[in-house]
Design brief:
Blueprint (H helix, E strand, L loop, with lengths): L42 E4 L2 H9 L14 E4 L1 H12 L10 E2 L14 H6 L11
Antiparallel strand pairs: 1-2, 1-3
């Protein structure tokens, strides 16, 4: 990973991993992007079955690559925002919006999504496990 990738707090981007395959535009486990990533795979999400169903209904069935609820995946900022907006509009419930690991979400996500909206769905880290 390049050392210039920053998270939404301006700190070095954390590793997000990925299962069943490595995630990220570069498939290196980091939710980092470049000019060639038109989808901006910058949001470090933990997908739910409800989100996977929503994404499939929008034309992108991530289940076909083996994702299931609980998987970590670098999501397109626009898809996460679509799910968030659908939740705000009452079209899907809260479970349809993936939780977000802010330390692993690239700052480029902020071009499309307000930080406060991401924080609403932020993963709560256990300080003991983060040492």
């Amino acid at each position: 990973m390049t050392s210039s990738a920053r998270n939404v707090f301006g700190k070095p981007l954390a590793y997000h991993g990925g299962s069943p395959i490595k995630t990220g535009y570069f498939r290196d486990g980091y939710c980092r992007t470049d000019a060639g990533d038109f989808g901006s795979h910058s949001v470090a999400g933990i997908v739910t079955d409800e989100f996977l169903e929503f994404s499939a209904s929008q034309g992108n069935d991530l289940r076909t690559i083996g994702l299931k609820g609980g998987c970590k995946w670098c999501l397109c900022a626009s898809r996460w925002l679509e799910a968030f907006t659908a939740h705000q509009d009452g079209r899907i419930d809260r479970r349809g919006v993936p939780q977000v690991d802010l330390e692993a979400t690239e700052d480029t996500a902020l071009r499309k999504i307000d930080l406060k909206d991401l924080q609403t769905f932020a993963v709560k880290h256990d300080a003991k496990n983060d040492l």
